[in-house]
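This part of the workshop introduces the protein records we will be handling. Backbone structure tokens are a discrete shorthand for how the chain folds in space. Once this layout is familiar, the rest of the handout is easier to follow. The record below serves as our worked example for the rest of this section.
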Amino acid sequence: MKHIKIALIPGDGIGPEVVAEGVNVLKAIEQLDSDISFTFTEFPWGCEYYLEHGNMMDDDGIDRLREFDAIYLGAVGYPGVPDHISLWDLLLRIRKAFDQYVNLRPVSLLDPSLTPLKSKSEKNIDMLVIRENSEGEYAGAGDWLFKGKPEEVVLQTGVFSRKGTERIIRYAYEEARRSNRTLTSISKGNALNYSMVFWDQVFEEVGKDYPDVTTYSYLVDAASLYFVTHPERFEVVVTSNLFGDIMTDLGAGITGGLGLATGANINPEKTYPSMFEPVHGSAPDIAGKGVANPIAAIWSVSQMLDFFGEEKWGKAVLDTIKSMIGETANLTPDLGGKASTSEVGNRFVEKLTEKDKN
């Protein structure tokens, strides 16, 4: 039996509500498949924890998380806590400590009714964005000089190491080869004359080892245009930390919104735990109302299952999501339905169980 130990960090706002439904999906799979089991340990960390204790997580939090196979995160963010604190003291701290240098963000249209783009189908919008997740513009390097004075200067330094840049680009080439898809690099080499020129150079160098992979390279402004006008140009995409963050939210906009956006923070070598999360934020304005969309959180469960070699179940979860989209009455209000968060989760488990029996 394969046993997977999962650390739960439900977090803030709607995080606990959507994570609960993802956990129920995993428990249902455990009941359906005697070859796999899960254990869950919950940690109360997040912004509300910060307001009470003065820190986003316990001092020994990283050491405690180290013993798990995966981390399942709900959402982080709460009024009264600056965004840079919630990001750097929990999410980025975990990503960096566990060398989760690959961020996987599927941008896939589940149903034509979900996109604001005219005449685009599921075949037109189906890409995987591979975002560098450990350095780049989010390295935290820089300085704040002469603070509060007229000559005040702020420096924010992007860090692009040979190791960090090459490994994410090579990972993307491997994925493109494995899935027999094209690979597109997104950079800004014409303006960022050090970091992005270096990125483009490494992309070309690594590509010599993958002559079978068809490649393209776009400036980020042009890529933003083509995401909207010609999304079918993109299959596998690789880009830097900042550009990946922005482009994938644009991707969410053309595929149904953040309620359907998921992400995996991967340590491919499995030396450390990887982290799986919906990327919609904590949405404190609707927290506790039972209307949060749990589908992104459930999609992250599919990513988790794929990562642990349970592709059959990963596909079953994703297929069930796709079939759920056609049942408007069983969706949350953001997708035109009237169902509650738990009602969506319950219907999902019901459909997944029916699918397995058939």
In short: Residues 302 and 318 are 6 Å apart (CA to CA). The chain has a mean pLDDT of 96. The longest strand covers residues 2-11. The chain has two domains: 1-101+267-358, 102-260.
